[in-house]
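Lab notebook, design round three. We kept the backbone fixed and only want residue identities now. Task for the bench partner: fill in a sequence for the structure below.
Input structure tokens:
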């Protein structure tokens, strides 16, 4: 196992806060066993998300001081637009404050109630935006993607036969667009192959349906294509990205991931009509088209971050750091989703806690234990996030995967921190039979995992 050395030096440091097990046990109970309700200063290693948590470079911080805060026509917008066109190749670029606003704009203009949006796997905000507008979000991932132990190199792939059947059944009138999420976050941060994207693109093209990407981890996906797919080892990640995006007609982007910024996103489209409609709505709910809910300086940081993320020394370190954490866990017999994906290691909570039934949220129970025992904040991607009632039968439908994601922020933690995380999880695993299930006491109508309160089942 290779020890991944950071390809950067540290210039500014932020202290971590120590706490005792007793303090954490009290706090987690007080906040209703929901780690979203914890103050960040009560956390030692924060692996809740890789979103908006990146450390920016000196070059990005320099860009921040070059902010042109003109209401219209900021120079930072033009830099940003040039960068996005150069990498993504789409005609029109609409800046937004983050990814879900790009989703909101897109689905507000294309989606009519009753229509369906297929995806390899929708992330929670995408699913919620579609359902909020009366649409149906369908996950059409390949079977291997739902098997945590399958070593398929592209477990994020779209199930082409199921997509074809859906298109034949519903037709383009009922499917305003098809999405592919790169990498497939909800199913283990797994990449999608170029081959699969090309076939999906051809199928969509034959039926006159646009293909759009949820592109927030595009650079990690492209690096994994370079590593794993035949014919790409000699291509640059930038060339791979250009080929990939040429197969679609637009994307939503949360730049809080591979944009290496703390806030920012965009919607990119080839269609003039959709752009005009999205821009009209943007002005109503987000901001003028040359800033879209951001400051000029944020656009500059995003432009620079999107260029930096294509640096292959950085990407090699990034992917290897996560693999390094995953391989330490595998060597200790801890059940994780294999192979290790792009931005996170995913613990398989069903196998980790076989004594807790799915209706008692094993993923959330494990998340709580990691915080209480080691001060590590992870996030549940399982029943708390995705279980829902069937509209017709009223029965609760549980997701196939019950995962706990250890998302690694970009350029923030060292490989020594990964050693600490691995060692702590081994400790929790040894005492796993002590961990109790949970039940919900309070929940909001949608995206309940952000604010639900729970209690331990005695
Ligand atoms: C992640 C997030 C952010 C998040 C969301 C929910 C709970 C905890 C953390 C956001 C995504 C994403 C994909 C594939 C769109 C968004 C929304 N992910 N698509 O993974 O992963 O972007 O947050 O900028 O609005 O932790 P946004």
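Proposed sequence:
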């Amino acid at each position: 196992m290779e020890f991944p050395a950071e390809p950067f030096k540290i210039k500014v440091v932020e202290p971590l806060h120590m706490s005792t097990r007793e303090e954490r046990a009290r706090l987690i109970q007080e906040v209703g066993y929901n780690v979203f309700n914890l103050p960040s200063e009560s956390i030692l290693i924060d692996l809740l998300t890789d979103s908006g948590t990146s450390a920016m470079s000196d070059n990005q911080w320099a860009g921040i001081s070059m902010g042109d805060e003109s209401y219209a026509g900021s120079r930072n917008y033009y830099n940003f637009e040039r960068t996005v066109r150069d990498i993504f190749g789409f005609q029109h670029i609409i800046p937004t404050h983050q990814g879900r606003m790009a989703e909101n704009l897109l689905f507000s203009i294309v989606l009519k109630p009753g229509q369906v949006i297929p995806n390899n796997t929708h992330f929670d905000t995408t699913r919620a935006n579609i359902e909020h507008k009366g649409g149906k979000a369908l996950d059409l991932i390949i079977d291997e993607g739902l098997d945590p132990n399958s070593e398929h190199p592209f477990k994020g792939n779209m199930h082409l036969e199921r997509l074809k059947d859906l298109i034949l059944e519903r037709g383009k009138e009922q499917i305003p667009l098809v999405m592919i999420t790169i990498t497939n976050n909800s199913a283990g941060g797994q990449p999608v192959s170029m081959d699969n994207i090309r076939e999906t693109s051809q199928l969509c093209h034959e039926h006159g349906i646009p293909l759009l990407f949820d592109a927030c981890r595009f650079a990690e996906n492209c690096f994994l294509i370079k590593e794993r797919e035949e014919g790409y080892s000699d291509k640059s990640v930038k060339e791979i990205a250009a080929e990939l995006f040429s197969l679609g007609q637009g994307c939503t982007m949360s730049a809080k991931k591979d944009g290496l910024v703390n806030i920012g996103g965009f919607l990119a489209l080839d269609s003039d009509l959709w752009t005009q409609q999205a821009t009209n709505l943007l002005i109503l709910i987000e901001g003028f088209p040359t800033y879209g809910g951001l400051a000029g300086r944020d656009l500059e940081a995003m432009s620079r971050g999107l260029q930096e993320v294509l640096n292959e020394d950085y990407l090699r370190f990034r992917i290897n750091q996560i693999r390094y954490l995953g391989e330490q866990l595998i060597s200790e017999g801890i059940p994780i989703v294999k192979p290790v994906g792009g931005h996170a290691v995913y613990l398989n909570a069903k196998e980790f806690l076989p004594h807790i039934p799915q209706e008692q949220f094993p993923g959330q129970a494990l998340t709580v234990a990691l915080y209480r025992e080691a001060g590590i904040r992870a996030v549940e991607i399982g029943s708390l996030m995705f279980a829902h009632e069937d509209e017709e039968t009223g029965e609760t439908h549980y997701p196939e995967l019950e995962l706990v994601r250890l998302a690694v922020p970009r350029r923030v933690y060292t490989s020594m921190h990964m050693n600490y995380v691995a060692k702590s999880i081994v400790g929790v695993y040894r005492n796993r039979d002590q961990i109790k299930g949970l039940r919900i006491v309070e929940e909001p109508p949608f995206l309940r995992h952000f604010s639900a309160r729970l209690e331990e089942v005695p």
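Keep this in mind before ordering anything: Residues 86 and 104 are 25 Å apart (CA to CA).
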